[in-house]
Amino acid sequence: MLKEKIKILLKNIPLDRLNVSQDVNLIKITAVGNIFLNMTSVQRQQVIYNPLIELITEKHIHAITINTYTAKEWSIKNKQQK
């Protein structure tokens, strides 16, 4: 249920790929999109984090890991893993 809420909150961000997983109280988000071009790692985190602030402050999310990639970075990462 929480995963679906997160996906709904992030739906307005232009992403090519969004994966949300949950392990007890830890949420893991992988977001891929060229919206992250020319952004610092902090700015990228903020893009994902800001729509979730209410869930975090209301303690629905206790821990979160956010990984962000441009389309090119994602392609390179996938080639390295094969």
Automatic annotation (TrEMBL):
Coiled coil: none annotated. It comes from the Bacteria. The keyword DNA-binding applies. Transmembrane segments: none annotated. GO terms for molecular function: DNA binding. Keywords: DNA-binding. Belongs to the BolA/IbaG family. This is Putative DNA-binding transcriptional regulator. It comes from Buchnera aphidicola (Nipponaphis monzeni).
